[in-house]
Structure formats: structure tokens, C-alpha cells
Design brief:
The chain has 3 helices and 9 strands; from the N terminus they run αβαββαββββββ. β7 and β8 form a beta hairpin. The protein has an 8-stranded antiparallel barrel. The relative contact order is 0.21. The two termini are 35 Å apart. It is mainly beta.
Length: 246
């Protein structure tokens, strides 16, 4: 998602809500903050789940946690070769290679993938961008977070033959090699801390239930071989959550 599209889609609902409550001669009170629990509907559409909780409220500031997980990568898994695996410190005894010869790439099954994260959030709900009225109850928020990201990738591997084949079994070529067979998977675990920021608006649908519309962007630091984003890139996502407060 481009930065322009991310900023436009995030700021449109925020600006609209703020404009509705700006010029008013009525008594204006900011929306009181509560402890909340919410579920990200937009993440569910991307085959992810994401839950957020804000258990600590300090004036117009909140501190919360969010957790997410997915088994879907954001691009197709590449063809895995022995050279690719060995470059990532795999078991060198497992390889589709000829004895003393070059290594050849072989297509394998898709790797098993799991991406999960746990984030610590702080949000500020400015008084001037919040309203608790009879017809309008909303609050705009600006926040930042630090996320612990983890990736678990189970790579399929291949075994070479434990001994050379007779020369006549390969048509007299004398090549001491046989086709590889499936071997045990190699599990790769990656983890790291990734900072980010978020902006959005909370719209109350009653006394307890609310909808949040906004966006978040984080700086990628984990070198995930199955992701199109490299360390140093930004990952922007829209948020559409439903939740309740108490």
C-alpha cells in the first residue's frame, strides 16, 4: 500500500469526525475513556487475527497490548534449493547434490509458516478532537507502539543417497548420484523488535460498543525470507475494529 493511499484513507474519517464537532454552540465535553477490548475485522479479512486491550487509562492517555498471528505470507514462497538452505545455516548433510558435483535446485512443497506479534501501545486522545454528545460520541487518537515479532518457518528438505549408485545403473555414465528423497524439515525461528505509529478515530455505537477506523505503520527489522518487505521498509495497514468498554 502506498504512503499516499494510507494517509488519505486514514485521515478521511478522522477529519470528518473532527469537522462535525468543531463549530458548535452547544456544551462540549470530551468522550470519557474506558478500559477496552477490541477485535480487528480488517485483519480477519487478510486471514489474520488481532486482539487489542487497553487496561490502563491515565487522563487522556491509555496503555494497552495487542496480539496477532497469521499463517499466510504476503507473497508466494520461493523455490527452495540446497544453496538457498545452506546460506541460511541449514544441515549440510541434507542436499540434492551429486557427490563431488554441483548442487541443483529442486521444487519442494510449501514451507509451513507462522508469523506472530505482541505489541505494547500508548495512545493519546486529544480533548479538542473528542466529543461526548447526544448524537455524536467520538474520539481521535494518536499513538505509538513497540512490537515483538516472531517468525517460525519449517523448510522442507531433501536427502541424498547414503552411497553411490553403480555406474551401469545410470546408463553407463559413471555418475555416482541418485535422485533425492524427502528428508526431515528444518525449522527456522526469527524474532526482533519493530517500532511503529498509529492514528485513527473511535466512534461509539452506544454506551459500551464502539468501532475504530484508522491505520498503523511499522518499521520492518526482521529479515523474513518469505516476505516482500526487507529490513528498513515500512509496513502500513488499515484497521477496522469493533470492541466494547467497561
Amino acid at each position: 500500500m502506498s504512503w499516499f493511499r494510507f494517509v488519505v484513507l486514514t485521515l478521511i474519517p478522522t477529519t470528518a469526525l473532527a469537522a462535525q464537532g468543531a463549530p458548535s454552540a452547544m456544551r462540549r465535553e470530551p468522550l470519557p475513556l474506558r478500559q477496552t477490548l477490541s477485535f480487528d475485522l480488517n485483519a480477519a479479512l487478510d486471514a489474520r487475527w488481532r486482539l487489542s486491550v487497553e487496561p490502563l487509562v491515565i487522563g487522556r492517555l491509555t496503555v494497552g497490548l495487542s496480539a496477532s498471528s497469521t499463517a499466510v505470507v504476503d507473497q508466494a514462497a520461493p523455490e527452495v534449493s540446497y544453496a538457498t538452505l545452506s546460506a541460511r545455516e541449514t544441515d549440510l548433510s541434507l542436499a540434492p547434490c551429486a557427490y563431488g558435483g554441483p548442487c541443483y535446485p529442486y521444487p519442494t512443497s510449501e514451507p509451513t509458516y507462522r508469523a506472530s506479534s505482541l505489541s505494547l501501545h500508548t495512545r493519546w486522545y486529544p480533548t479538542g478532537l473528542s466529543r461526548d454528545g447526544e448524537r455524536q460520541q467520538f474520539a481521535v487518537y494518536i499513538g505509538e507502539f513497540l512490537s515483538y515479532e516472531e517468525r517460525r518457518i519449517s523448510w522442507p528438505q531433501w536427502l541424498h543417497a547414503p552411497y553411490p549408485l553403480p555406474a551401469d545403473s545410470l546408463g553407463g555414465s559413471g555418475l555416482p548420484w541418485s535422485p533425492p528423497s524427502p528428508g526431515p524439515s528444518w525449522v527456522e525461528r526469527l524474532h526482533g523488535l519493530e517500532p511503529g505509529a498509529e492514528i485513527g478515530a473511535r466512534l461509539m455505537m452506544g454506551q459500551r460498543v464502539f468501532i475504530e477506523v484508522g491505520g498503523m505503520v511499522r518499521i520492518v527489522t526482521v529479515d523474513d525470507p518469505l516476505s516482500r518487505r526487507r529490513p528498513g521498509d515500512s509496513d502500513a495497514r488499515l484497521q477496522l475494529a469493533i470492541g466494547f468498554g467497561w
